[in-house]
Every structure is written in C-alpha cells, then in structure tokens.
Design a protein that fits this description.
By secondary structure, this protein is an alpha/beta fold. It has two domains: about 25-230, Rossmann fold; about 245-355, 3-Layer(aba) Sandwich (Rossmann fold), CATH 3.40.50.40. The chain is built from eleven helices and 14 strands. It has helices at about 1-20, 60-65, 70-75, 90-105, 125-135, 155-170, 255-265, 280-295, 315-320, 330-340, 345-355; strands at about 30-40, 75-85, 115, 140-145, 175-180, 185, 190-195, 200-205, 210-215, 215-220, 245-250, 270-275, 295-300, 325. The strands form three sheets. Strands 2-1-3-4-5-6-9-10 form an eight-stranded mixed sheet, with helices on both faces. Strands 11-12-13-14 form a four-stranded parallel sheet, sandwiched between helices. The chain is globular, with a radius of gyration of 22 Å. It starts with a helix and ends with a helix.
Length: about 350
Amino acid sequence: MKQSFFIKTITIIAILSLFTNSSFAQKNNLPNIVILATGGTIAGSAASATQAGYTSGQVGIEQMIDAVPGIRDLANVRGEQIANVGSQDMSIKIWFDLARRINELLATDTVDGIVVTHGTDTQEETAYFLNLVVKSDKPVVTTGSMRPSTALSAEGPLNLYNAVAVAASPKAKAHGVMLVMNDQIHSPQGVTKTNTTAVETFKSPMQGLMGAVLYGQLEFYRMPHGLYGKTSEFVVDTFTTLPRVDIIYMSVNSSPDLISQSVKSGAKGIVIAGVGNGNMSKAALDACKAATEKGVVVVRSTRVPTGYVLRNAEVNDDEYHTIASDELNAQKSRVLLMLALLKKRNLKEIQDLYYAY
C-alpha cells in the first residue's frame, strides 16, 4: 500500500516537472520568448578571467539565463539546447534543426519570439539562412559575445538581455531575423564580422544599422532590404541537406586548379571571392567557364569588405556563364546559392535571386 502510494506520488511529480519544463512560468502577461542555444563564445569558459584562450560551448542555456539580472522582467523565458558548439563547427544539420524548431514554435499561439545564441564566427551566415527560411512575422533574434562567460567584462549577459528585449517587443514584428550585439540591431543581409576580437565586431557597412537597443529600450531606423521570411520562396521542410557549394579565394597568381578540383570533388556550385569587382585571372576565368559548361553554377563575389559586384562590368558574365553576387559577400552568396540549387533553375533565374535577396 505504502509502496503503491510512493510510486504514484513520484509519477505525479515527474509529470508536473515535465509540464513545467515544456511550458512558461507565466508572469504578468509578459511575452513568451524561447531561447534556442547553439553554443559559441557566449557559452564559453576559460581558466582565468583575463586569458585570451577559451573553450566555446561549455555553459548550458539555463545557466546562461540565470546569469542575466532582470531578464525575466522582460518576458517569460525558457531555453532549449539545440547544440553546444563553437560556431566554427556550425553545420547544415544544426541549421535545419534550428529552422524547423523555430518554425514549429512560432506557429503556436504560446510563443511570441525566438532568441538564438550563437558563436560570432559564422553567426552572419546562420542569421542569413534563417532569414530566408523562417516563415513567421514574429521576431527572431540571434546574439552572442566576443568574450567568454568567465572573462573580465564579459558582454554576453547584456547582449542576451537586449536580444530578449528585441524579441519581446511589438516594434520588432515583421523585421525578419535580426542580429543583436553591442547595443545594435543589424539585418542579416548587410551585417558582417569585421574584427577578430573586439566587442564592436559586427557592422553593416553598406546598409547601416536597422536599429539600436540600450538596456532593453529599442528603436528601429528602417525595415530590412530585400525578400525574407514570408516573402522568401525558400522552404526546407522536405530536405535533409543542402547541395555542396565551395568558396574559392582569389589572390595574385591563384591556382585555377582549385576550381577544377572543386568540380571533381562534387561541388554543385562555386563562389569566387574575387579581387575588386569580383575579378580573377584569365586562367581562373577559363576554369570557371569549364565548370559552368559541366553544369556547375559559379557566382562571382568579392573579398573586398564593401561594394557591389556588377554583372557584365569588368567580367563578361554572359560569355563565362557566371552570376554576379550584387551586394552579398562570399559567405552569404554561398548560403543563397545552396538554397537556390534545391530546385532546377536557369542562370537568369539564379541571377534574379541575387538581386531580390
């Protein structure tokens, strides 16, 4: 009798615990925000507060939330650990896991916004990918930090606080995915990492800031540029991976055999991080033409931090059957090309995607 009562009690406690962990502890009708953690420096730790070296992805999401004073006054928050890796190890599988979980959560009436914690090295690529495949007007915010959680003056807690504030704000509706760090709100299309270690690493040199957020108080300056979210045609629900697209960097006397080797290794697309206006040597151009004749799509981007890559300017794209990346840098050109190659398109259709997105 006593044993039966004990077992029933334990079962009830377990069920209540499961319900609590999968739901929000409601407070004052605040917005409901889910924080999806993937690791990165914001979850990193080091042996001391002042050393440069550290290990990413060491701190769990619940510990991160508990380290942010006042975060539960902004919203009802709960966390889910999608991954716990340094962003140099971010993968397409994690992208798919994130995108599907975000779409699943935002399709419910109980979630008002999403925050994704992420390492800074590849954060702009993940944000851009999500901006093209998340199908909701509800806010999605990526954030991270340049200093690990154990560092002197670690900025991760304030970045996470501000990210939740943006995700919880009605002002942020229909702005697509946003990157929030260092009191700034960026659009994924224009933002890029510009410094290896400084906290003010992310900048949008062509488009400028989308807005600012100061201790939870935010203001938007503009809407995002281009197609995104519900206006984007890209859907990944029925796919498990993306086609292989390689990035090849151009410099003085670059070896054209890198391009041919990429084709031999199975690349369906190649992005050239060209010099200047997406330029490359005659030998490299000839290798690109050989690649396009085999059905590989070649996009000319640039290694230069700002500026457009123009079609049929210094390179005759019609002759070489190449695509001009417009304003997308090489890494985001790769993201767009991988998604574009999920279905059969002619070169004009692919070029139009670079103008639209």
